[in-house]
Structures are given as C-alpha cells and as structure tokens.
Specification:
Elements (H helix, E strand, L loop, with lengths): L1 H21 L7 E12 L14 E13 L2 E10 L12 E12 L3 E8 L1 E2 L7 E2 L1 E2 L4 E2 L2 E8 L5 E12 L2 E2 L3 E10 H4 L8 E13 L12 E13 L2 E10 L14 E12 L2 E11 L42 E13 L11 E12 L3 E8 L2 E8 L5 E17 L4 E13 H6 L8 E14 L4 E11 L7 E10 L3 E9 L11 E11 L2 E10 L2 E5 L2 E5 L2 E11 L1
Antiparallel strand pairs: 1-2, 1-33, 2-3, 3-4, 4-5, 5-10, 6-7, 8-9, 10-11, 11-12, 11-13, 13-14, 14-15, 15-16, 16-17, 17-18, 18-19, 19-20, 20-23, 21-22, 23-24, 24-25, 25-26, 26-27, 27-28, 28-29, 29-30, 30-33, 31-32
C-alpha cells in the first residue's frame, strides 16, 4: 500500500484527460507544463563537493490548468526525490502542493485555494515562486479583487502560507486599495499627466508561545504608494511601516519596522536616466517567527543595485539586508546615433551605473537580562545611516556596439566593493572584511549565416582578497532552430591556496522543438551565492551530470 500511495498523485494527473473526455469536456481547454531537473553527482574533495548518498537527485513539476470561459482551475504536482543540491531538505517528498479554482470577470476576480499576488511593489505582501532559489510562498485560502467603478480596485486576501509540503501555523489577512485618479476624475481624463495612488495593510496572527518574551500576536504592516507619469518621466515611491515584531532573525528587538523606496526615471529616444534611493529598517516580515533563510517571507524589498548576469561577477552578488540598509543608485543610458564617427553604422549604446548601499548606525537604548545574558530591546539610528560602513558598492560601464550585419560586441567593466561578512554571514566579525573586485568582460556575437550563430565570452576578475583572481572563457554555438552547444571554463588561478587553483569546467547541449526543450550537461560547480532580485541562496560546490526537460502543452 505504501508503494502504491507514492504513485497515486501521478496516476490521478495522467487520468485527468481521460476523465475530461468522459464528462464531455474538451481537452483543448486543458493546458499545462512539465519540468524535471536531474543531477548525478560525484564527490570532489578539491572543490569541497561532498558525496551524495543517493547519487541521483531530482526536482519535478507538472502543472495542469483547465479553462472554460471565465472559469479556471488547476493543480501542480511536485516531486523532490530527493531535492537538488542546495535546496532545503524539507522539500523532500511528493504530492499536490498547489491547487486552485478561480473566476475572473470585468469587475470581479475570485480565487479559492492557492494563489500568488502582491500589493504594490510587494513591500508588505508578496506571494511568489522562484524555483532557482527554492522559494514558493503561495497563500492557501481566499483572494478577491473587486472593481466597482473604473479607476478603483479593492483587493482582499485571507489564508495561510505554504511551508514546504505543510502550511504555516499563522493566519494572514490583508487588503489593498488602488486608485487611477485620471479615471476617477473626468476633468483629468485627457490629461497628459497620469496619477496612481494605493494603500495596503497586511496582518499576521500567531499565538505567543514564548516563555521569555512578551510577543505581539497580531502584527500589522501598512504601506502607501504613488506613481506619476508624464511623457518620458516616471516618479514612483512607496513607504511602509510595520509594528514591533521581535523574532530571532532580527535579534528579538522591539523597534517598529519601516521601508522607503523612491524611483525616478526619464527616457526619450536614445537617452535614459534612472535615480533611485531606499531605506530599510527592521522590515523583515514573515508569516512565522522561528524561521530561517528565505522561509515564509511576506515582504519583498526590491534591490536597487544592478543585477549582473555574467558568470564571474555573480560570485559577489548583493543580497538585500532586511534588518537595515540605506542605498542609492544612478543609471545613465545613451545611444550614440548611427552613421556617426563614434556611433558607427548602427549606433553604439553606452550604459553607466553606480550604486552604493551602507549600514544603519544603531545604538541600543533599552535592554534587559535573561539568565545572565543581555537581551537588546530598542535602538536608535540616524535616518541616513552610517556612510562609512559600506555593504556594497558597484560602478560599471557597458558599451554595446553592432559593427555590421554579422558582428556585435559588448564590453563591460565592473568595480565592486563587497562586504562579505555582512552579505554572506550576517555579522561584521566573520573575518573576511571588504572584497575589492575589478572585472572586465568582452562578449562577441557573430551570425555566421541564417542558421549558424557563434557567441563567446572572455572574462577576467581581479582581486587580492577572498579566493583571489579568476579567468573564464565561454563558447556557444547555436544551430537554428533546434540545437545549442555551450562550453566554458572558470579558472581560479589566483587562489591563495595553490591546491585550489583549479578549473571549473562546464559543457552542455540542448535541443529545442516547438514548446519543448531537453538539455544535458556536465559541470564542476563552484560554491557561492545564487541571487534573483536581491534574494539569495547558497549553492554548494558540486561535480556531476545534469539533465533538464521543459515542456508546455
């Protein structure tokens, strides 16, 4: 019986099309997607890759959705047998982790079951999934969005949050109001200036079971936002406030939380300018208190530093510090016109970006003692923080030029200051200090003919701290429309330990047809952080083969 129950969810999913036909439902209304990622791993003591007892690890997802008119329903089967390296081991197992039914019309959206959503920029509430990071914090409950008149939307959510294959032991309740002023006021309907206003509240109820501290059982967070658009100018700001919420990840302090994001951008043909600033103070909002890593997050605090995609700079990505940071960013884009001396026959795009994030300057003003151990309760901090205590700084320039119909080059130079103690270990005493990095990348794209294209990357990253300097060479051949071949080698030639000056090889082949893609790879993966949108997880070192299958139908 035990073995049969393991495969029962698969049998039910595979039988859905047959059941649909038996009920007279057209299978044309059923859509879905399938994804499986498999690793076969070897131990590698040189890079610190530990042995994996199972040898084979896999993550698999199958989603089915049925739609008929305004009605949609679906489910997702997930299997982690066992989870891929770096994923939380509490994902181990299989089952239907996501199921929903919803009705959508011009004025009303109604969802029961699991759902993803966010209020505004997500500062007080964002339920989302990011498979690369092992994050899925969907809410299981009820979601309603009501639009009684044009320009007004009222949204409400109620439920519990996903916790691997279980649910959180708290109750979430939230509401959001969004106004489009130009639609509400006829006198502004034809105005070139567009104004949007919004406000949100999110409440978490969790019983106080702490014998040491007096904890609030109802924790609420509030936010207000505004967006103004006129021509190429966009001004966007949001402020959030959260009542005191002591829990281990903020060292049990009783300060209220707050977050401010301000963004201004202006664009016209061939030119773009972005200015952004943020301040975060004790704004880590979760649906449970005793959690770790990225578990059960409710708030999403957008990064304002550039998200680098080239391989070597991703060794030092920035992770948003929920407990406190102040940051600024400026980005300038300029397209030198084509058919000029500097622009060339197709124009040249230049992008310059600067970002800096530093600490708050906190001074504790109230504390107590428990079993002889000091416990801090309240602190004070100046609004602009401690400019001298840098967490992250990034200055980069990118020059993108198309030379002719076949050749394009992208030249990038990056200078980073990376506080490894804070970003990776959350403490100023980890012993690594500031890592100064200079990275230069040249990407070349060459279109051989209508069928064949060739791409290369030459990367070099210089630093005298941490793991020392790196070099990388990548080559990629694509044969339209089906085949992709990629090889690259990362070489940590500057490692202070001569035995660890090793090559990290990677080779992959992928075949794509219609809405399906199959890839097979071998990689020697370095340890590091994998970040998406300022949220990071640690990726351990590994050595082995990988198989990935993605399909939509």
């Amino acid at each position: 019986m035990h073995h049969f129950s393991r495969f029962l969810p698969i049998a039910l999913l595979l039988s859905l099309p047959i059941l649909a036909l038996g009920q007279g439902i057209s299978t044309k209304n059923i859509h879905g997607s399938f994804q499986t990622d498999v690793q076969y791993l070897f131990p590698d003591s040189i890079i610190g890759a530990a042995a994996v007892d199972e040898k084979v690890l896999s993550n698999t997802f199958l989603q089915l959705t049925y739609q008929q008119g305004n009605f949609r329903a679906g489910l997702r089967y997930e299997a982690y047998l066992n989870p891929l390296l770096g994923f939380d081991e509490r994902y181990e197992g299989q089952g239907i982790a996501y199921r929903f039914a919803e009705y959508n019309s011009e004025r009303l959206d109604l969802t029961v079951g699991n759902f993803y959503d966010q209020f505004g920029n997500g500062i007080v509430f964002r339920a989302y999934q990011e498979w690369a990071l092992g994050i899925d914090n969907s809410v299981d409950g009820l979601r309603v969005a009501f639009r009684p008149i044009k320009g007004l939307q009222i949204k409400g959510v109620l439920g519990t949050q996903r916790k691997f294959f279980e649910r959180s032991n708290s109750l979430l309740r939230g509401a959001d109001l969004e106004l489009t002023i130009n639609d509400l006021l006829p006198a502004l309907a034809e105005s070139k200036t567009r104004l949007f206003l919004g406000g949100s509240v999110m409440n978490r109820y969790q019983a106080d079971d702490d014998v040491r501290l007096d904890l609030p059982e109802n924790v609420s967070a509030f936010s207000g936002r505004a967006r103004l658009i006129r021509g190429g100018l966009v001004l966007d700001t949001e402020y959030a406030y959260k009542i005191n919420d002591p829990f281990p990840l903020n060292d049990n302090v009783y300060n209220p939380g707050s977050a401010l994001f301000v963004n201004a951008n202006y664009s016209r043909k061939g030119f773009g300018l972005i200015l952004a600033a943020k301040r975060i103070d004790n704004m880590d909002f979760r649906s449970e208190r005793n959690v770790t890593l990225q578990e059960l997050t409710l708030s999403f605090l957008p990064p304002i530093s550039k998200l680098h995609t080239y391989r070597l700079p991703t060794l030092y990505p920035y992770a948003t510090q929920f407990n406190g940071e102040v940051g600024f960013q400026a980005s300038l884009l300029y397209n030198i016109p084509r058919k000029t001396r500097l622009g060339g026959p197709y124009g040249t795009l230049i992008s310059v970006n600067y970002s800096r994030i530093h600490a708050l300057d906190t001074t504790f003003v109230d504390w107590g003692y428990f079993n002889g151990e000091r416990v801090n309760f309240l602190y004070e901090t100046p609004y602009l923080g401690d400019f001298d205590n840098v967490y992250f700084q990034d200055v980069n320039i990118e020059i993108n030029r198309k030379w002719n119909k076949k050749l394009r080059t992208i030249l990038t130079h990056i200078y980073l200051r990376y506080n490894k103690d804070i970003i990776e270990f959350g403490t100023p005493t980890a012993g690594y200090g500031i890592v100064d990095v200079q990275a230069t990348i040249l990407e070349t794209q060459y279109k051989i003919n209508r069928k064949f294209a060739f791409r290369t990357e030459v990367q070099h990253m210089y630093t005298q701290q941490d793991l020392g300097s790196w070099a990388m060479l990548l080559a990629e051949l694509s044969i339209s429309p089906n085949w992709y071949f990629t090889v690259f080698d990362e070489y940590n030639y500057g490692n202070p330990d001569p035995e660890k000056r090793v090559h990290y090889y990677n080779a992959s082949v992928a075949y794509a047809f219609e809405a399906h893609r199959i890839s097979f790879s071998y990689s020697r993966q370095r340890r590091g952080l994998l970040c998406v949108g300022g949220i990071c997880r640690e990726v351990p070192a590994s050595n082995g083969f990988g198989l990935s299958i993605n399909s939509s139908f």
